[in-house]
Amino acid sequence: MNIVNQLQRQFIDFSTSLHREGFVDDQFTQLQKLQDENSPDFVVEVVSLFFEDCEKLINNMARALEQTQGVDFKQVDASVHQLKGSSSSIGAMRVKNACISFRSFCEAQNREGCLRCLQQVTHEYSLLKNKLQTLFTLEQQILAAGGSIPVVD
Amino acid sequence: MVVETGFSSPRTDAFPAGLRVLVVDDDPTWLKILEKMLKKCFYEVTTCCLAREALNLLRQRKDGYDIVISDVNMPDMDGFKLLEHVGLEMDLPVIMMSVDGEIRRVMKGVQHGACDYLLKPIRMKELRNIWQHVFRKKIHEVRDIESMEGIESIHMARSGSELFDDGSFLGGEDTTSGRKRKDADNKRDDKDLGDPSSTKKARVVWTVDLHQKFVKAVNQIGYDKVGPKKILDLMNVPWLTRENVASHLQKYRLYLSRLQKEGDIKNSFMGMKHSDTPPKDSTAGSGIRNSINLTQDNVSNGSFSFPVNHTLAPSVDLKGHEGDRKGITSGPMTELKGPFPIDVSGPRKAKSSKISFDHSLGSVDSVVNFASFGPTDTAQYSWNEIPEIQFKQEYEPLQLENRFSQLPLPGLQHHMLPEYLQPAVSVSPGPSITEKEATSSGFEVKSMYDDYRSNHAKHSSQTEAVGESHSLNNQVFKSISTTTSSMKSQDTVPNHLTVSEFSPKNLYEGVGADDLQLCWPQGDCYATNFGLQGLDCTEHNNPATALETPFHLYDHPFDPTEYYASDQGLFA
Q: What sections of the protein cross the membrane (chain A) (predicted)?
């Protein structure tokens, strides 16, 4: 098997596992389908935007939760809600799910619970970031080797 | 029957390709994705991440978009509010989006007039179908127009030959017209082809003028007792249908209820706005706006429809109809004295003033909010306080000049106003008449007014007053334009000021032209006006605020008369 095929094989396997493990869902596939010659780096661009937004929101939440005087749970909740919406844009399922449970702790004004959720959200975000970076690297390698990126449905 | 879709632009053939979509979402990721998806549908996409920006865009390019898609949660403005504004001012279909699919939220969206509510993540196929909403709306408009046209022809025939109504004379044709007439009678649709834009577009544009009439009618009937039919009867606009009024009434109700709830937020908005528009005497403008229309258009909109002509009467209850009056006069109005405090402080003040005129009365804030929406010319905005806009045409030249290069021709009332308002009122618009300017211009105005008055002098009757007010207004506006931010003093004689607009009865009752003159103390226009007015501010409740707006705009010393004129609506 030549190098291109090998890489493509790897790509397919990796992609499938991402879906299977819930890192991304169908929305991510939709994004990949949107990519075309007009915007060849569409997915990478969108994902980058998402990660930027994610970091900003996580920082907001952390800051709000750090307030010893009194945590503004509304603000935290607003950020979580935003993150939830954002994560749905690229199909970041696990991040999104982490947000859902986060929101109920916000509603309950449970600081400890919120901090735990924040930790989880941060963790999921890091995991996803690594996974997607691996995926993009594979894509680059395939293209560099002269192959085309397989479409995984 | 040929259904004219109303798409006369080149894109028509390729419809729905080329559909002009405006997407509003604060989430950059979604904005990018939606843009890509919509482009894949061959739509023309414009994106923005702030609601205010969106409103500005919409106001600047009326008819520049076919449909708006907006997220519900946005930092600067509630998506529902944006929805209301778009519906009222531009009458475009709006689709809401959210990651939250809670039934109540969706219901709220529909209630506020959203033609659809999409849940995120949004798929391509959902976006592919959005053209249906645009098409549907066009068809309905066309239907209205066509029926109106039919009715109109009948009416023309009818009026032309009353004697032959019985049909014998006209023969077959008559029967048809007879039938049509019946329909017309039922529908009360007299399409008055006087509004060329509407015929073409087959869409009722709620200009400031029109909205003012609407508000006036609502106030006359009594908000609690209104019904589309009653309003329609009172408005006496031949080409308007009951359906038009009904849907507008629904939006208006929402708007009012929202205003009532709002309060400080608006102020903050106002503040926001004002700050946004530093160069323009937004402060002044805002102040004015507040008083005038604040309700609807936040100053920013500029659309502050100064109902120049009309507003005076009913709605502008600046005076005191409501306790607000005081606020106005003392509040923003006085505030305006200076550089139109409106800008930031404006909103607050405006509130008070505003209160008077908008229906929500107490909601200066609400007004403010509106203002915050669009410092820019919100021509469309006028609907809020439409009364003010009345002047729109006239004013436009005057003030808007600065900013509104785009201002449409006088013919476009609604367009005009916003422009008009803007300079003066709107916080944002440049031309806003700042106090300083006002002062300087005020003088001018006064003198102009005097000249004017002397020219016109002669009538002493109310009508005269009215007339004068009209002219005054014109003058005022003129002067305003000259004085304030380099407004071009076009002689826009505020047509709307013309007697037709004014309801002499309310405006000038007991108020002589001289009275009007009185007041134009700097910045304290309102106070003076009110005094003069002595009018029954009854009407004040009406959105007359719109009317008031004009005043506000001109916060600077305009001839009281002028003010009066515009105030007529308010005080009526």
A: none
Q: What is the pLDDT of residue B266?
A: 55
**Which residue from B32, B71, B73 is facing A49, i.e. has the nearest CB?**
B32
Instruction: Provide ipTM, 2 decimals.
Output: 0.93
Nearest chain A residue to B30 by CA distance is A89
Which DSSP string do the residues of B335-355 spell out, in sequence order? HHHTT-GGGTHHHHHHHHHHH
pLDDT per residue over B364-416, tens digit each? 333 333 333 334 443 344 444 444 334 344 433 333 334 433 434 444 344 44
Query: Which pLDDT score is estimated for A43?
Result: 94
Q: β-pairing, B44-48 with B20-24?
A: parallel
Report which DSSP code applies to A36: B
Distance from CA of B31 to the nearest CA of A (A): 9
Rounded Cα distance, B75 and B92, in Å: 22
Identify all chain A residues contacting B30, using CB atoms and an 8 Å cutoff.
85-86, 89
Crossing angle of helices B525-533 and B560-571, rounded to 10°: 70
The reply to whether residue B36 touches residue A42, judged by beta carbons under 8 angstroms, is: yes
pLDDT of residue B182: 46
Q: How many helices (H) and strands (E) does chain B have?
A: 27, 5
Contacts of B29 in chain A (CB under 8 A): 46, 49-50, 53, 86, 89-90
- State whether A89 and B100 contact (CB < 8 Å): no
User: Among A27, A46, A82, whose Cβ lies nearest the Cβ of B32?
Assistant: A46
Is the Cα torsion angle B55, B60, B62, B65 positive or negative in sign? negative
Tell me the pLDDT tens digit for each residue of B128-171. 999 999 999 888 877 777 766 666 666 666 655 544 444 444 44
Q: Do B73 and A81 touch (CB under 8 A)?
A: yes
Return d(Cα B438, Cα A15) in angstroms, integer: 67
Distance from C-alpha of A92 to C-alpha of B22, rounded to nearest angstrom: 26
Which run of H or E residues covers position B88? none
User: How far apart are alpha carbons B322 and B362 in whole angstroms?
Assistant: 8
pTM of the model: 0.48
Average per-residue pLDDT for chain B? 57
Q: Which of B36, B73, B99 sits opposite A88 (nearest CB)?
A: B99
Residues in chain A with CB shorter than 8 Å from the CB of B27 are 53, 82, 85-86, 89
For the stretch B173-205, pLDDT in tens is: 444 444 444 444 444 444 444 444 444 445 677
Mean pLDDT of B511-516: 41
Mention every residue, 6+ apart, whose C-beta is less than 8 A from residue B461.
none
